Amino acid sequence: MSPIAGAPGTTQDFVEVRLPAAGAYLSVLRTATAGLAARLDFTLDEIEDLRIAVDEACAILLQQAVPGSVLSCVFRLVGDALRVTVSAPTTDGRAPERDTFAWTVLSALAGEVDSTVADDRTVSISLHKKRGAGPGQP
Q1: Which InterPro entries does the annotation name (predicted)?
Q2: Looking at domain 12-130, which of 3.20.20.70, 3.30.565.10, 3.40.50.2000, 3.40.190.10 is its CATH number?
Q3: Phi first, then psi: what are they for 71, rounded to 5°?
Q4: What does the pLDDT look like over 19-34, one tens digit per residue?
Q5: C-alpha 127 chain-centroid distance
Q6: How far apart are CA 105 and CA 93, in angstroms?
């Protein structure tokens, strides 16, 4: 893990994983998620919730990812929290619908959930899970 600049005088640990935008590779992200959450002393239930949330976020992105593109996942360890941002170039550049069952699941499992769309149609979904936060709590 490499430190990156955060607020002045602070650093954040981060890990970035880039892999083909295909479901066959998602087990790599689930494993990385579990390992990093364990490093922050998340409970087994919190780790499993976050693994499922990362998997669901990737599934949402893969539905509209450009064939043959790269899925990027950045994990940022900040205090007692883990922020996970998954992103991929998409065919239509639409943000995920927030009134779907999938978005409800993400929010329940990860706490804070957000999405953004870049000018190049890259869609990102960010999850922020704090250790000790109950289901649906940031």
Answers
A1: Anti-sigma-factor_SerPK (IPR050267), HATPase_C_sf (IPR036890)
A2: 3.30.565.10
A3: -95, 130
A4: 999 999 999 999 999 9
A5: 5
A6: 22
